Amino acid sequence: MSTQRRTRRLLQLRFFIVGFLLPTLLRPAAALAEPPRGVDTVVVCPDAWRPDLLAWVAHREGQGRRVTVIPPKPTAEETLGAIRAAFDAPAVSDSAAVAALSVTTPKRWVLLIGDAGVEGSRAPPGTTPTWFTDGVINPRWGSEPTIATDLPYADTDGDGRADAAVGRIACDSAGELRRYTGRVIRYESTRAGRLDGRLLRLVASPGRFSPWLDRVIEATAARILADLTPPDCDLHLTYADWRSPYCPYPPSMPDAVAAGLQQPALAWVYLGHGQRGSLDLLRTPLGHARLLDRDLVHKLQGGRFPPVAAIVACYAGAFDGGDDCLAEAMLKQPGGPLAVVAGSRVTMPYGNSALGLELLGGFFAGREETLGGLVAAAKRASLTTPPGTADTDDRSAGGLRRAVEAVAAGFTPGEEGRRLERVEHAQMYNLLGDPLLRVRRPLAAPVSVRLLADRPRTVVVTCESPFAGECRLRLKRRGPPAPPGAATRDEFRLNDAARAEYDASYAAANAPPAADEKRFGVAAGAFTSELAMPANGDAGALAADAGGWLVVAHIAGEEGLAIGYAEVDAPLSSQREPR
Predict the structure, then answer these.
(1) Where are the beta strands (DSSP E) in 57-116?
(2) Contact status, residue 321 vs residue 287, Cβ threshold 8 Å
(3) Most CB atoms closer than 10 Å: which of 233, 280, 413, 498?
(4) Which one, of 190, 286, 197, 211, lies nearest residue 485 by Cα?
(5) For residue 481, what are the contacts with CB-CB under 8 A and spacing of at least 6?
(6) How far apart are CA 356 and CA 312, in angstroms?
């Protein structure tokens, strides 16, 4: 055999071993028996950036996703046609523009990569075009006549129903794409839980619409937070009103907001006014302090535990402009959030409430495994005809939705007007970030309590931990915190004494002391501990307390976070599992 033929045979044998034999031998047995399956994830990415996406594709395929990558087309209609072709679905049709009208549980994912360009022009290289749908309700509030939205991309089979979860990584370069996907992979590769990870961080500003409407909006938001936030979750509030106990020292407001975005949290939520490049201002008699804007996002550098952010405000998610909107700027920072849900146009109180309560409920009571699925489910629920559920529990999402509808009738009259407002909010609130980002949900650590007859101030706690870790066990009062607008100051001062007072008030408002608290290591399985009730408390006093008392267990270990709680309102309280 000649040297040339021998070399050719060796190369053929090498290709056979590397290309077929090794992958076949290393493939799990279950996978060998499975027939080929179709694509479930389509990524629209400029060709020049594909090498910087390889690690993310490998990461997702390792999780079982079936990914294909296609280049963007010059127009949104052409791009949707290419997406449908990749899913082996019908060609683009006129129904795409109204995909928001009917949403189903997503079984597919669409990731758009690149900025969106501006309305009225073909998408330049390095961008993926978005859609512009006609607004009916929000132009009456001073918005543009069209809404920038990625939602029509969710209709991947041409039936007018949004069947996919959609997200956009609005990067401007291959380097930005590589850095963002690297952060996602690092986040999902770490399973260890933290005792302070079951925390909802809120930043809010006064409405300043009118005294009556402001009170209605604040009362509605307070009820949604109080009723949908489970007792095992802690709240941290920053409120942009110098009179409030939840306001930090005004000159320190930007640092307080940035710090909240870089500390462990279930989610970071802003409620208030916004612009394309900024959140609202903290207004004081001596001037204004910024909360967060494009010039301040550089503070988001050192966060090791990036949360998901939701900005319930006007314009902060207007990703179709010539410059980055605030949500885009936050996403690109090394310590910024991994995803931002934000509105691209003027948003309205009723639409914000209808969608916001479904998003919040999805974080706590939902079962979606991906952030894109959670956002799609929230939009689907917000678009149902009110009240949307036969649930008679006034503290459920359905009961709260009925309350929101009743309030909205006063300033958004007519069911058709409210329906259109809900549709427009489903269109204008877009997910900037990876729609396949995993939603971390805690495991259950069932808790039961009993009160001893011979030691009436002792609460005996039994808990079942699913893994070994550190436990934080607390006896705390149940009930909502003080209203954010509750004034505690009637004089504005800026000096060292005022700083100390602000700092102490802010810390006390956000960390009400537990009646008793213990921290200790636990092994997997059942354990028992004891907590002491307040000195003037006994079983009868606790049961009669209007707020009630709770025992809450948080357990953090290498496998994640486990939680449980039980009400201390009877000699024996039934266990509760996380929502």
Answers:
(1) 67-70, 103-113
(2) no
(3) 280
(4) 211
(5) 235, 237, 509, 512
(6) 8
Query: What single DSSP character describes residue 418?
Result: H
Q: Residue 359's CB: how many other CB atoms inside 10 A?
A: 23
* Both tokens assigned to 45: 């990415």
- 142 C-beta neighbours (distance < 10 Å), count: 9
DSSP string, 323-366: S--HHHHHHTSTTS-SEEEEESS---HHHHHHHHHHHHHHHHH-
Q: Report the distance separating Cα 409 and Cα 422, nearest Å.
A: 14
Q: Report helix, strand or coil for 549.
A: strand
Q: pTM to 2 decimals? A: 0.84
Give the pair of three-digit tokens for residue 215.
Answer: 């009170």
Contact by Cβ (8 Å): 149, 131: yes
* Token pair 């990625």: residue: 150
Spatial distance between the Cα atoms of 382 and 376, rounded to a whole number of angstroms: 10
pLDDT at 12: 42
Q: What is the rounded distance in angstroms from the CA atom of residue 283 to the CA atom of residue 242?
A: 8
For residues 504 and 378, give the distance between their C-alpha atoms in angstroms, rounded to a whole number: 37
Q: Where are the beta strands (DSSP E) in 120-197?
A: 131-134, 146-149, 162-169
Place of tokens 């549980």: 105
Strands 458-465 and 525-532: antiparallel
Phi and psi, residue 127, nearest 5°: -130, 160
Alpha-carbon distance of 91 to 302, in angstroms, equals: 45
Res. 88 pLDDT band, cuts 50 70 90: confident
d(CA 82, CA 90) in angstroms, rounded, equals 10
Alpha-carbon separation of residue 572 from 40, 83, 449, 451, 575 (angstroms)? 48, 57, 6, 7, 10
C-alpha 126, offset from chain centre:
27
Rounded mean pLDDT, 6-19 = 40
Q: What is the pLDDT of residue 290?
A: 93
> Could you give the CA distance from residue 302 to residue 261 in angstroms, rounded to a whole number?
10
Are 106 and 165 contacting, i.e. CB atoms less than 8 angstroms apart?
yes
| CA pair distance 109, 40, nearest whole angstrom | 6
The model's pLDDT over 252-304, given as tens digits with 9 standing for 90+, comes to: 999 999 998 988 888 899 999 999 999 999 999 999 999 999 999 998 987 66
Q: Is a pLDDT exceeding 70 seen at residue 197?
A: yes
Phi (first) and psi of residue 132, to 5 degrees: -130, 110
Instruction: For residue 528, give both structure tokens.
Output: 């028992």
Nearest to 505 by CA among 241, 221, 227: 241
How far apart, in whole angstroms, are the C-alpha atoms of residue 293 and residue 280?
A: 9
Phi/psi at 498 (nearest 5 deg)?
A: -65, -40
Pairing of strands 516-522, 469-477: antiparallel
Stretch 51-62: mean pLDDT, rounded?
96
Task: Tell me which residue of 85, 115, 107 sits closest to 165, measured CA to CA.
Answer: 107
